[in-house]
Amino acid sequence: MHIRKQRLLTPGPTPLYPPAMQAMMASDIHHRTQDFRNIYTAALADLKDVLGTSNDVLIFAASGTGAMDASVSNLFSPGDKVVVCSAGKFGERWVEIAKAYGLDVTVLKAEYGQAVSVEAVQAALAAEPATKGVFVQASETSTGAAHDIQGMAAAVGSTDAILVVDGITGIGTMPLDVDGWGIDVLIGGSQKSFMIPPGLAFLSVSKKAWALSETATLPHYYFNLKKEKKSADLGESSWTPATSLILALGEALKYVKSLGMANLVANAQLLALAMRAACTELGLELFAPDSPGSSVTSILAPSGMDSGVIVKELRTRFGAIITNGQGSMKGRIFRIAHLGYFDFWDLFAMVAALETILYSNGIPVEFGKGVAAVQRVYAYAAIPTPIAVP
Description:
alpha/beta; Aspartate Aminotransferase, domain 1; Aspartate Aminotransferase, domain 2; 2 domains; seven-stranded mixed β-sheet; 14 strands
């Protein structure tokens, strides 16, 4: 009871892959040497491999929002008509970026906990054939909902518009077939499923998106896709790279390749399924029951209880760091992550701790009921003779 190890259970930053952290110790390497060019080129190639795309992939020293910014400033012009799917705090960020650059924005809004439908996107594109871009989150981590990216890609692909997907928490938690579906720009970040610290943003760019860049007139300097591609073709970054993070990324990508991206996705989806099963057994209500994603499970606090109590007690009693709701959702929901370097041991402990906290706050709980639900999901997936999952 007196020793509490800190455990990071948030949807970003996520737990770190140990060999990646060890690789960072070699970061006293100069970034304009052949040794580093070899490392950088390998990281770019492995990133393309892991994302499953033949499109160009570029890396910036930035948070994921830097790549979001770059996708607007490099590919569009002031007054261009675009559609933004907004179903949470990060969808609202797309709106803010697009408006900051003077784009003509049509917002397709879904209530928190819901997702924007493919039909809504189709209708918006039909109503405005001059639309040049559609922006969406694959996984809206602020609410726990996920969008139908395959359906949206089909809708956008038949038009002159490009589909720009914030996959920062979608990559590694849901299928995202960049080339097969026609995702024109896919954005990711280092501190999510790639299991290394924050500080790297990356994006894939399709031929259709590159063509749009030829007529784009918005100003940009640091986030310059053409300049970055020219440098990347020479094995370098345009600006001073985050060398330690590139070294870490190289190790993390080797690990993801050894697992297989499909298995990384399956891991997150199985953990999310088990967490939802535990919620059902404990009488807890999901915040996004109609379109739940696998990057995070968002859970409504029991009636009359502030979700901040659960967040605080997990930290003070057990050293477990989870996240509260954001904005209007603060105090209403708490969020438990599944992306990246998480396993069932993490979830067994998490649910047991949650049961204890609910019980200590007067919520009727039968100890072990939620944990047993997680065990049943694990047994169904992992034991040679599976048992039925209720």
